[in-house]
Design goal:
mainly alpha; 9% strand; 68% helix; Ribosomal Protein S8, Chain: A, domain 1; 5 helices; 2 domains; rod-shaped; three-stranded antiparallel sheet; 3 strands
Length: 118
Amino acid sequence: MSGKNELQQMKNRLDKCKNKLAAAKTRGDASVIRQFEDEINKLNKRIAQVNHKQSFDLNKERKALLAMPFQREITKLEQADMGKLKKRVKGLVVVHPMTKVGKALKLDVVTGFAPKEF
């Protein structure tokens, strides 16, 4: 399961637990209240771990791209035939500005990162 789906399922489960906790508090059922409070704490901790892991991985990828010695904007003509460009330049990584990595790098245009000039 992808991290995005896993995170969404945990948030949905957290929301259900919060609703059930509110209902248990109105009934005054102490054992159920304690059970849902424990479940909510576990879910919050797990959600924080997944968020931290995602940000760590994104930062690691961002640093790897910035460490590449050459980067430049990919022209519209090159974007039209991306396969040809990738065959010509070994190790090319193309980043779109609307992806998570592109936003982390604060890109305005489609940019290519490569170990050598292209």
